[in-house]
Each structure stands twice: as C-alpha cells, then as structure tokens.
From TrEMBL:
PANTHER family reported for this sequence: RNA POLYMERASE ECF-TYPE SIGMA FACTO, RNA POLYMERASE SIGMA FACTOR SIGV
Gene3D superfamilies named in the record: 1.10.1740.10, Winged helix-like DNA-binding domain superfamily/Winged helix DNA-binding domain
Entries under Pfam families matching the protein: Sigma70_r2, Sigma70_r4_2
Organism ancestry: Bacteria, Bacillati, Bacillota, Bacilli, Bacillales
Signal peptide range in chain numbering: none
Protein name: RNA polymerase sigma factor
Domain of life where this protein originates: Bacteria
Domain RNA polymerase sigma-70 region span(s) in chain numbering: 21-85
Record SUPFAM superfamilies: Sigma2 domain of RNA polymerase sigma factors, Sigma3 and sigma4 domains of RNA polymerase sigma factors
Family classification: Belongs to the sigma-70 factor family. ECF subfamily.
Protein species of origin: Cohnella cellulosilytica
Length: 173
C-alpha cells in the first residue's frame, strides 16, 4: 500500500500497521451495522480492501483515507444487501412455482407450450424472459422499454393467468 507511505497520515497514527488496523476496524463496524446478513461482513470488507487498492489513485486528500474507505465499505454492504434480497426473491418465486398450491405440473413441453400459447404475446414474452431466460426485472424492463413496476405487475398477473389455465385444464376449480 504505497499510497499510505507517501501520504501525510494523521499525527495520531504512529505506523502504517496502526493505520491498517484502525482502517479495518472502522470498515468492519460500518459493514456490520449496514448488512442484513452479518456473516457476510468479512467478505464485504475484503472486497472493500480490493477496491481501495484498485482506486487508491483517486483519493485526493490522503487525510480522508478512513472516511473514504468507510464509504466504500458502506456502498459494498448496500450492494450485498440488494444482491441478497434479489436472491431471496428469486428463491421465493422458485419455491412458489414448485409448491403444491401452484398446481402447475405440465405433463410435457407440449402442454406447457399450449398454455403459454393461450397467453397474449406480451405476457408470454415477459414470462419467458423471466423464467426461461432468467432475466432480472430491470433487464426485462430495459429490453421492452417499460417501467420495472409495470414488468413486475404483468409478470405477477401472467403467472396468475397461467395458474388459472392450468387449474382449468386439470379440472380444478
């Protein structure tokens, strides 16, 4: 970490090791406070170290190393929370689709194709993008030039229509 040797450190720090220990401690506090899953804290701090090393040339005022590093750690913790939420939402959706209450168990690809074929083209496209191609809602919205909320609502309604069609075909009411 050459950028620490060449910089003017606060007088309260006597050595580079002390700076690194303090920096790690401060980043860990920020990350633990921000993260929903505290077990990810060490990984996020490690990722923050990588970012700090990669971006060290962008730090203009070396006296602001700790606040800068804490900001990087905070942002990475926010990203980790978002990623966890997305994973949880996707897992919930997969579990919902696999649950017995969904009542959608096509006997063949032909039956699935038939059910999808009865949907309007836009809904069919949304469901295929989401569940076949695995695109995220934001990616679908960008591809179709629609707001993300509209995409989510249409996917939800499309799933409901698909469920209703499957139930009607299987004789459930």
């Amino acid at each position: 970490m050459n950028f620490l040797r060449d910089s003017q450190l606060p007088e309260s720090f006597r050595s580079e090791d002390e700076v690194l220990v303090e920096l790690y401690s401060q980043m860990l506090k920020v990350v633990r406070h921000k993260l929903l899953h505290k077990g990810d804290a060490v990984d996020v701090v490690q990722e923050a170290w990588v970012r700090i090393l990669e971006k060290s040339s962008t730090l203009r005022d070396k006296e602001k190393l700790i606040p800068w590093a804490k900001a990087i750690a905070y942002n990475l913790a926010s990203n980790a929370n978002r990623a966890r939420r997305h994973e949880a939402n996707y897992e919930d959706l997969e579990n919902e689709l696999a649950s017995p209450t969904f009542a959608f168990e096509p006997e063949s690809m032909t039956e699935l194709s038939d059910l999808l074929g009865r949907l309007d083209p836009t809904t069919r496209t949304l469901l295929l993008y989401k569940f076949y191609y695995g695109l995220k809602d934001a990616e679908i919205a960008a591809a179709l030039d629609l707001p993300v909320g509209t995409v989510k609502a249409r996917i939800h309604r499309g799933k409901a229509r698909l469920r209703t069609q499957a139930e009607d075909e299987n004789g459930h009411t």
